[in-house]
């Protein structure tokens, strides 16, 4: 009896039907119903391959072997185009898998790059959270104050050598980075904080000067003037100054806000570039003290040691003006610590600008030494043993050495000019080839057209793979470049932080 038309069920199907009927017609009070339900609830559902009988597994294996033999026979009887189409299908699948893998690798590489950049940025030392905000000038109030500050800066420059001599920075050759509190007899005013730094920098003095003024321009609104009248707030340079910067901004120092006015002048000397500044800061509330005003006087210079190194010196004095109180020592100590952190943040900003300036100058120098060719690349023409180099925008003005070279050059020009006349004849040929290609595609069989489509898809996938490989190369180059730059910046900042942390610890011990 044929199994396909047999009315009888197999053993497994019959047992399944019996179990189904038995579960439906079992009485509710039967003890077997609860046991069956409990057993069904506790047992997990097994996979179908575990419950498959052995004879069925053997039958499936035989069918698989038969299908493999049939596939081999069909491949042997298949035409060349069919086998080529099959290979194209297999290659298409492999290329698609490779494209997916390359895209996943690109995403993973991009994510790894962002994580590394974030980790390196987090590792960069930050002395404190200092956020400057530009404030417009008030012509009625700021003009007289800034004019008096500019005059005091000129007086400070006259006393620069005396101030450096008193600070112990005159003639010293060692590096210095410290800060300490001065105990003044006056309770309401007097010098409170003294900060000194003398660092040997491995950069040119001109680069350091540019970076300093770049930090000044970015830290405040030196170019931003008042809306009431910019010409009224322009202060005179004086007889000796070569540059002046006028700044007014609000600074968020931790949880405290102060409004600062700063006047800075630059003086060009014989062997160095000096900077003198005066800063007036108004604190509404700091350390429990209200309406506190601090006045900072600063001197500094940048002096070249040799061609690639310079000495950077900075000396600041800060004295507060506050209302008399019985006990203000803790508040003054808090104010000194706060102001010292602000000075350290200012020095960090100058160092970051210095690194940026040096990198820009290095890249500009490299681009000048190795310029990229402009226009089209050089073309070489070979005519009867004569080689001519035609650069974009350039012509060889040297005369040929012999008459043969002249004739070869003329022939080269004739051939080159004649090729332009052949261009109009290429249009009909291209149209004819395109029509023939369309006719062949129409006459081709369905399998051939499908094979052609698969080949086109493979070509597109290969192009996409090349683009993805280029993107991965660019990402790897960006990873290495940004990592190198961040490591250099981190190294410089770590060196500077060690100096300033040492100074801060000395300042804390003295305080």
From TrEMBL:
Residues 393-407, 415-424 have a biased composition (Basic and acidic residues). Residues 43-53 have a biased composition (Basic residues). It comes from the Eukaryota. Residues 358-375 have a biased composition (Polar residues). Residues 29-53, 358-428 are annotated as: Disordered. This is M96 mating-specific protein family. It comes from Phytophthora pseudosyringae. The lineage of its organism: Eukaryota, Sar, Stramenopiles, Oomycota, Peronosporomycetes.
């Amino acid at each position: 009896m044929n199994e396909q038309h047999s009315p009888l069920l197999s053993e497994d199907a019959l047992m399944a039907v019996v179990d189904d009927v038995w579960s439906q017609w079992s009485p509710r009070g039967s003890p077997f119903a609860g046991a069956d339900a409990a057993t069904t609830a506790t047992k997990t559902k097994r996979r179908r391959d575990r419950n498959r009988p052995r004879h069925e597994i053997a039958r499936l294996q035989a069918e698989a072997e038969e299908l493999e033999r049939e596939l081999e026979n069909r491949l042997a009887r298949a035409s060349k185009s069919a086998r080529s189409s099959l290979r194209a299908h297999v290659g298409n699948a492999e290329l698609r898998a490779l494209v997916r893998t390359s895209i996943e690798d690109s995403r993973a590489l991009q994510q790894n790059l962002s994580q590394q950049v974030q980790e390196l940025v987090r590792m960069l030392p930050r002395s404190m959270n200092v956020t400057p905000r530009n404030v417009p000038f008030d012509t009625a109030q700021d003009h007289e104050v800034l004019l008096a500050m500019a005059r005091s800066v000129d007086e400070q420059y006259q006393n620069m050598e005396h101030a450096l001599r008193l600070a112990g920075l005159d003639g010293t050759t060692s590096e210095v980075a410290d800060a300490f509190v001065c105990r003044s007899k006056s309770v309401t005013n007097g010098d409170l904080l003294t900060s000194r730094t003398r660092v040997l920098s491995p950069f040119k003095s001109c680069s350091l000067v540019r970076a300093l003024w770049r930090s000044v321009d970015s830290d405040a609104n030196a170019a931003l003037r008042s809306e009431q009248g910019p010409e009224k707030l322009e202060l005179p340079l004086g007889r000796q100054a070569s540059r002046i910067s006028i700044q007014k901004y609000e600074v968020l120092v931790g949880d405290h806000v102060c409004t600062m006015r700063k006047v800075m002048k630059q003086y060009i000397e014989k062997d160095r570039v000096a900077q003198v500044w005066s800063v007036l800061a108004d604190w509404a509330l700091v350390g429990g003290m209200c309406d506190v005003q601090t006045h900072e006087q600063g001197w500094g210079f940048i002096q070249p040691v040799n061609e690639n190194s310079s000495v950077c010196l900075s000396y600041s004095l800060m004295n507060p003006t506050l209302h008399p109180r019985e006990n203000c020592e803790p508040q003054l100590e808090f104010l000194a610590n706060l102001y010292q952190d602000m000075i350290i943040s200012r020095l960090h900003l100058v160092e970051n600008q210095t690194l940026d300036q040096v990198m820009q100058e290095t890249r500009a120098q490299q681009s000048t030494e190795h310029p990229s060719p402009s226009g089209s690349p050089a073309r070489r023409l070979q005519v009867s043993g004569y080689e001519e180099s035609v650069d974009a925008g350039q012509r060889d003005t040297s005369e040929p050495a012999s008459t043969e070279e002249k004739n070869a050059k003329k022939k080269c020009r004739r051939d080159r000019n004649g090729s332009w006349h052949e261009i109009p004849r290429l249009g009909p040929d291209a149209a004819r080839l395109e029509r023939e290609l369309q006719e062949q595609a129409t006459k081709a069989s369905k399998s051939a057209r499908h094979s052609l489509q698969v080949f086109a898809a493979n070509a597109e996938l290969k192009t996409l793979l090349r683009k993805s490989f280029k993107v991965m190369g660019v990402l790897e180059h960006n990873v290495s470049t940004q990592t190198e730059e961040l490591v250099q910046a981190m190294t410089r900042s770590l060196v500077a932080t060690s100096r300033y942390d040492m100074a801060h610890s000395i300042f804390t011990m003295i305080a």
